[in-house]
Every structure is written in C-alpha cells, then in structure tokens.
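As promised in the previous annual report, we have extended the structural survey to additional targets. Below is the entry for Bulb-type lectin domain-containing protein.
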Amino acid sequence: MTTSSRNVQHFVHVILVILHCFNTGFCTEVDSITSTLSLRDPGILSSPGGVLKLGFFSPLNSSNRYVGIWYNFSETIVIWVANRDKPLRDSSGVVKISGDGNIVIMNGEEEILWSSNVSTSQVNSIALLQDSGNFVLVDHLNNGSTIWQSFEHPSDSIVPKMRLSENTRTGRG
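The corresponding structure token record, generated without further manual editing, is:
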C-alpha cells in the first residue's frame, strides 16, 4: 500500500468517526440548557468542575430512559432522577426550557413527561448543574436568582452541601 493510499484511507476513517459523533450525539456535552440550546438523548450536561453529569440513562435490565444526575466516575451511582414516575420508552427524549421558562422533559411526540412546574414569567431562564449536585433553573437576567432547584425535590440520596428544608408547597420537611 502506498503512502498516498494510506493517507486517503486515514482521512476517510477520520471523517467517518466525526460523522458518527455528530449523527449519534456522543460528542454532545454542554454546560447549560437555554431556550435555544436543548439536551437531546444521549447528550450530557456537566457541572463546572466535571464532578457530576446530568443526562439520559437506563437502569440495568431496563430499556426505559430517565433523566438523572450521577457522579462522573460512575453512571450507576445516580443521586437524583427527574422523571422517575414517567420514563421515556426510547431514546427520543429531550430536556429543554419551555416557552413559559420551565425545565421540561419531552418524548419524541413532544409530550411533556416532567416539568419543573414553577409559575414564572422568566423567558430568560437557564438550567445549570452545580458541582454540589443541585440542578437549578435560574433567571439569567436577574443576577442569576434561583427559580427552581432539585435540592428542594430530593430523591433517596443526600449529597454534601445539600440542605434539607421544608417544602413550601406541602408544608412538610
């Protein structure tokens, strides 16, 4: 094989790998979700220090898809799940900021399966994953004030820096 045919073969291989990444979404890792930037399965939202990830996952022996937070070193140690009661049935899921400023998880039919469900008129809201493990919806234009946070909706895990407080809607701790 000549040097020039090896170069062409290498070039074609590199192009195929790049196209595969764009087609499958494996190269998708973002640091925020905005009204113009959504997170599609299998995309990942990373905390600033890369300690935690938020994304789509399937538990062992299940084809259902969930949106959750896990430590970077192990996708099996999930510390929070958004749509635990309404899993996605396939990999068509998307996490986005809806027109009313909420974080929503939608399936391929654009059905909302989960929402942060806050009354807000903040169309400039963005969603971020903090290194503490808190997934937050903030008002981007109003000094980054928190509109909603996952720490106020805990699952079965308590993480460092997490403060448990009384739920203002239910009155329970």
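Residues 16-26 have pLDDT under 50 and may be disordered. Residues 132 and 161 are 6 Å apart (CA to CA). These points will be discussed at the next consortium meeting with the crystallography subgroup.
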